[in-house]
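FORM 7B: Structural annotation worksheet

SECTION A. Query
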Amino acid sequence: MRSLLGKAQPRDARCQNSVSNPHSAACTRPTRVVAPPGSSRESRDAMGPLAPLRAVAGFVSKPFRRGASARTRATTKDPMTEAEVEDLVLALNKIGAVKFGEFKLKSGLMSPVYVDLRVIVSYPDILEQVSRIMYAQIKNVKFDIMCGVPYTALPISTCMSLGFGLPMVMRRKEVKDYGTKKAIEGEYKAGQTCLIVEDLVTSGASVLETLETLKVEKLVVKDVVVLIDREQGGPQHLKANGLNLHAAFTLSALLKVLVKHKYVSDEVAAKVREFISSNQTADPTAKAAAAVAVPLPAPAKAVKRVPYEERAKQAKNALAKKCLELMARKKTNLSVAADVDTAEEMLALAEKVGPYICVFKTHVDIFDKWDASIANRLQEIAKKHDFLIFEDRKFADIGNTVVSQYEGGIYKIADWSDITNAHLVPGPGIIDGLKSVGLPKGRGCLLLAEMSSKGTLAAGEYTETVAKIAEEHADFVMGFICTNPAAWKFRPSPGMIFMTPGVQLSEGGDALGQQYNTPAAVLGPRGSDVIIVGRGVIKAKDPAAAAKEYRDAGWAAYTAGL
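SECTION B. Predicted structure
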């Protein structure tokens, strides 16, 4: 075998000093018998139909047949030696994976050091050694499958999978709008334990994004393995989210090696250490939550929840009364957001989740087609499964314009949607316009008082104003889209309904600023009535089973407050 900085070793060395481990079949491969030159077997191997497959197999397995050196280093039960760390660090430096100068990071900070491990895909020897050293960190960790964080960690996790026989799944960073539309590709089952593989960690944000996607698929994640810990808070942030970090080495250890071999001056090293010390990162989940969260009311001030059926008697809007009665009768406070691409997908989803929901939320303008026949089919499904239809149109124009948008155009929303919603930015005139169309048809409107996205401006004084104006139009306004109505200074009448989006079974956020809260938090201290769930249901392997799970969680949280 050829080590990173050494000479070739005999191939037979690969089975010397082998160490038994639960994941690897390193020395169990049958000995390959090569026919003598000129024999018929050699001719068949070279020219037969399996020749291309043998060539590919030989290419793929070649890096793992180079000898015992890397294999022994990776599988030894002893801690990695300083010499082994140096070997890899010097190789990474040689290929330009570690750079020093002035570099703008994703956060906007100027850093004196930049680690770019994307380049290792062009160096098979180094990629192999990275995978083996990372495997050494988790060889005693129990897990069923691995998932590499896109994109840099994908070749690393693939190399680990090939070298040690570890099953792997792949997370899509951008879910395709065709084919299976899966966020996680590969074979897996709910309840399996998944190891996250990443190249390096700074704050842990990319790892936590992958964690949320895996949680949606009901995979259990306890451990993360990385090559380099930048020592800027990542381990602590991951620990706070229930994850154990296993790092091959730290940025400080890398720096020490390069100083020792005079690739980095003492002055540059001091500058890097100062940067690390002065730029500790905040917990990505805590920071995201703080951007939108309103302080929860003190438990002592919590008001005992009034049952839905009692509040229905106090509703001034006919549809609000109908909705509250439906929720009590059907024992559900779940709304599923049909954020899918085609009308047929939307209708199929409505059939699957219909038995478990009180409200089915649509975005009609994202579907591939729309006409009266589709609207009629959706209404038939709603009647069959006893739920209301909510077109999440978010009207935000002057009164005359919204009249045309609501009753006309190609969607004719007022004809088929029980509920719609609106921003109050244009003023109360928008309610008058929508009311002139919807009230005669028995419709209801939700006002957007708060939103679940990071950095929303719908908060504070704006929210209080929305709540007060809603009371002045209680014959048509049936409630609110909101995140924390329990904290409002102005309390609307009991007949108003509070609906909260961005709900999942675990708290967190995504890369686009959506913040998630649990059913227990939303229906408990935050004081909402209806949980709106999108990806937690539509991205699940079994949307019906996921809807039932959310229905049960939501109803349990509601009854606990009675």
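SECTION C. Observations
Confidence is low (pLDDT under 50) at residues 1-47, 49-77, 287-302, 508-514. The two ends are 70 Å apart (CA to CA).

SECTION D. Sign-off
Analyst initials: ____
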